[in-house]
Amino acid sequence: MKPVDFAYARPMDVTAALSLLAEAGPSAKVIAGSQSLGPMLNLRLVQPGLVIDITHIAELRLVEERPDGISIGACITHADIEDGRVPDVAAGALRDVAHGIAYRAVRNRGTIGGSLTHADPSADWITMLAALGASVTLRGAAGLRTIPVEDYMLGALEADLRPGELLVSVTVPRLGRAARWGYYKLCRKTGEFAHAIGACVVDPERGVCRAVIGATEARPIVVADARHLIGDGTQEQFDGPAVDELARASGMEDAIVRQTHVVALRRAVAGAAHR
Ligand SMILES: Cc1cc2nc3c(=O)[nH]c(=O)nc-3n(C[C@H](O)[C@H](O)[C@H](O)COP(=O)(O)OP(=O)(O)OC[C@H]3O[C@@H](n4cnc5c(N)ncnc54)[C@H](O)[C@@H]3O)c2cc1C
Predict the structure, then answer these.
(1) Count of other CB atoms within 10 angstroms of residue 87
(2) Ligand 1 in contact with 77 (CB < 6 A)?
(3) Helix (H) / strand (E) containing 159
(4) Which residue, judged by its Cα, is nearest atom 39 of ligand 1?
(5) Which atom, in ligand 1's list, is nearest to the CA of 29?
(6) What residue ranges define each of the domains in the chain, with the CATH number in brackets?
(7) Dist. CA 237 → ligand 1 center (Å)
(8) Could you tell me where the DSSP H helices lie in the chain?
(9) How far is ligand 1, taken at its centre, from the CA of residue 77, in Å?
(10) How far apart are CA 265 and CA 198, in angstroms?
(11) Whole-angstrom Cα distance, residue 262 to residue 247?
(12) Does residue 41 line the site of ligand 1, with CB under 6 A?
């Protein structure tokens, strides 16, 4: 199928993009890498009157490294991160996760902001960035607001993006020198979306011990203090039954589905312990 006819605009700065969004209202749709929106347009799942292409906005491709972390513009692609054009303040976690997303052709165009806003529960960034304690900054007519990545995803394919807002950047805290992280994505073959994802970050200098169960059918399950589940990250300490119980309490009723998530998190923790 082909998309419906739509008007196309390519603003060169965020202010112009926000004006276009405000003028066009709900009939406007922002496009970044088009890796998710493109197929949805072709299938006519979305039928916008105006498509606003934000990929030529320099501000959205800015990367700013600071002592405590990094701010990554929404239009930075997975490939930019995979190739090291973005300093990896997370001890290699950003590059590793970017490399595991889909195929190179998708990574060349798909953006970090598009991935988070599309809010596919099986996507990689939402889970790893939640484990890292990252946040997103949104800009609209009312100004800027910053929220944790995990709160940005409200549910499957639903982000906390208010009418007229753009996601402008993602901020990732810098890991301490003794930090360990693990990420494990269970999928049938490379390039496919995950059936289960486990992620963890243990950073003693900052008192951080986070675990995330991702690729659920909704937002990821984030355990902000996961010491009781994964120990201190210096050895393989993992309480499988407690993780299973957590998944069950979060609404995962199928025992086999729960087991795939337990295994994914166990492998992430084992990866962190050996890093
Ligand atoms: C074959 C294939 C395999 C894939 N496999 C994986 C995988 O294994 N793991 C994974 O994580 N992803 C995977 N993806 C998805 C890919 O990572 C996309 O990059 C991502 O889903 C969307 O990013 P995008 O830049 O293409 O956004 P687009 O498709 O352009 O937009 C997606 C949505 O976000 C909105 N949007 C985009 N940017 C902004 C912004 N800055 N502010 C506000 N709204 C915005 C759009 O309006 C739209 O609703 C795959 C995609 C394909 C086609």
Answers:
(1) 13
(2) no
(3) strand 158-159
(4) 114
(5) 47
(6) 7-53 (3.30.43.10), 60-173 (3.30.465.10), 182-273 (3.30.390.50)
(7) 35
(8) 14-24, 37-42, 78-82, 93-99, 104-109, 112-118, 124-132, 149-152, 227-230, 240-249, 255-273
(9) 10
(10) 4
(11) 8
(12) no
Beta carbon of 89 within 6 Å of any ligand 1 atom = no
Q: Which two tokens stand for residue 97?
A: 């996760």
Does ligand 1 lie within 6 Å of residue 30's CB atom?
yes
With a 6 A CB cut-off, is 115 part of the ligand 1 pocket? yes
pLDDT bucket at 234, cuts 50 / 70 / 90: low
Which residue has its alpha carbon closest to ligand 1 atom 41?
Answer: 167
User: Cα(230) to centroid of ligand 1, in Å?
Assistant: 31
- Pick the closest to residue 76 from 34, 38, 43, 32 (CA basis): 32
Of 72, 118, 152, 192, the one to substitute when testing ligand 1's pocket (max ligand atoms within 8 A of C-beta) is 118
Q: What is the percentage of the chain residues whose pLDDT exceeds 90?
A: 93
pLDDT of residue 42: 96
**Residue with CA nearest ligand 1 atom 5:** 102
The confidence band for 237, taking pLDDT boundaries of 50, 70 and 90, is: confident
Which of 159, 57, 165 lies closest to 117, judged by CA?
A: 159
Q: What is the pLDDT of residue 192?
A: 83
Element spanning 54, H or E: none
Question: Bridge partners of 198?
Answer: 184, 213
Q: Tell me the C-alpha distance between 94 and 82, whole Å.
A: 7
* Residue 82 confidence (pLDDT) above 90: yes
Average pLDDT, the chain: 96
Residue 275 has a pLDDT of 81
pLDDT in tens, 106-119: 999 999 999 999 99
> pLDDT digit string (tens) for 189-223?
887 889 999 999 999 999 999 999 999 999 999 99
